[in-house]
């Protein structure tokens, strides 16, 4: 899938000049640049206009328009970039939250460097800034954000990897990744489920997030949550006219028509909220 990638355009979009060598420093730099450049959001799902998860469509949306999206798109683009640069890359699927109830509807990327695998997670609501070692007990602190990986042996089904975030004095499960190979058809199926299944939360609420300097901002159709490392989480209800300002501040990159339609959808969602 990487043949159609415009690597130079991607690197220009994320602010990296020239193709870096496939080493850990480059992987860390690329991961943070990607996360800070592209929002995590479900806007195209709500607008019933999602182009799909093929590389050409994701590249046109992210690189061409500066838009963001959700995990299948982020992982597709990021994996293609790493592969083009010479990294040893694989995509993996994960379950968010309770593994007994959640489908495999999250996608991550692993990169192997000098025998060590690194978990890249550029398309999560509160994404890692840098990759984390895919080793049992590995902990990383990214500017005050602390994460941990734990390996679980699930018998015949093989090993799985929990990614946890340190929050309010305890470790909170984010998602659990398995070791099964991932083909493009798996991403198509996952995307189809999350974007069309009647009870999918991606269809019933707005979400867009971005890492800004010193803080992470998450917006829904109901409120705004701001997290800063080592400080209490801030939350307030969405006020009149605030959504338009946040779409601009977080550089979501919608057209005027998309903004107008999104505001109408959000108005409906807020009317339906209890």
Please give a quick description of this structure.
By secondary structure, this protein is α+β, with helices and mostly antiparallel strands.
Write a structural description.
With 274 residues, the chain is α+β, with helices and mostly antiparallel strands. The protein has a single domain (2-272), classed as Arylamine N-acetyltransferase fold. It has eight helices and 13 strands. It has helices at 7-14, 24-37, 43-46, 55-65, 71-85, 184-196, 242-249, 256-272; strands at residues 40-41, 88-96, 106-113, 116-120, 132-133, 139-142, 145-153, 159-167, 170-178, 207-212, 215-220, 223-227, 234-237. The strands form two sheets. An eight-stranded antiparallel β-sheet has the order 5-4-3-2-9-8-7-6, with helices on one face. Strands 1-10-11-12-13 form a five-stranded antiparallel β-sheet. The model has no long low-confidence stretch (mean pLDDT 94).
Q: Give the structural class.
A: alpha+beta
Largest sheet at a glance?
Answer: 8 strands, antiparallel
Structure summary, number of beta strands: 13
Distance between the termini: 44 Å
Return the domain count.
1
CATH class: Alpha Beta
Overall geometry: globular
Strand order of the largest sheet: 5-4-3-2-9-8-7-6
Q: Could you spell the SSE succession in H and E letters?
A: HHEHHHEEEEEEEEHEEEEHH
- Uncertain stretches of 5 or more adjacent residues: none
- CATH architecture level-2 label: 2-Layer Sandwich
The helix count comes to 8
The level of helicity is 25-40%
- The CATH topology is given as Arylamine N-acetyltransferase fold
> How large a portion of the residues is in β-strands, by DSSP E?
25-35%
Mean of pLDDT: 94
Radius of gyration: 18 Å
């Amino acid at each position: 899938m990487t043949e159609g990638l415009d690597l130079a355009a991607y690197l220009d979009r994320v602010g990296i000049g020239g193709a870096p060598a496939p080493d850990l420093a480059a992987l860390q730099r690329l991961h943070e640049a990607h996360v800070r450049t592209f929002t995590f959001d479900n806007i195209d799902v709500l607008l019933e206009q999602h182009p799909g998860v093929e590389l050409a469509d994701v590249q046109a949306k992210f690189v061409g328009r500066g838009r963001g999206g959700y995990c299948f798109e982020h992982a597709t683009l990021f994996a293609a970039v790493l592969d083009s640069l010479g990294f040893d890359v694989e995509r993996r699927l994960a379950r968010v939250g309770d593994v007994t109830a959640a489908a495999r509807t999250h996608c991550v990327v692993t990169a192997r460097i000098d025998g060590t695998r690194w978990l890249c997670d550029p398309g999560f609501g509160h994404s890692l800034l840098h990759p984390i070692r895919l080793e049992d007990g590995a902990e990383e602190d990214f500017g005050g954000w602390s994460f941990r990986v734990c390996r679980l042996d699930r018998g015949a089904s093989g090993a799985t990897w929990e990614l946890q975030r340190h929050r309010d004095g305890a470790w909170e499960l984010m998602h659990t990744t398995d070791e099964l190979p991932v083909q493009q058809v798996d991403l198509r199926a996952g995307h189809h489920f999350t974007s069309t299944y009647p009870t999918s939360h991606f269809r019933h609420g707005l979400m867009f997030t971005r890492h800004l300097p010193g803080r992470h901002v998450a917006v829904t159709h109901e409120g705004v949550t701001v997290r800063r490392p080592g400080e209490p989480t801030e939350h307030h209800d969405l006020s009149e006219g605030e959504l338009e300002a946040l779409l601009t501040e977080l550089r979501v990159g919608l057209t005027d028509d998309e903004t107008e339609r999104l505001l109408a959808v959000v108005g409906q969602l807020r009317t339906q909220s209890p």
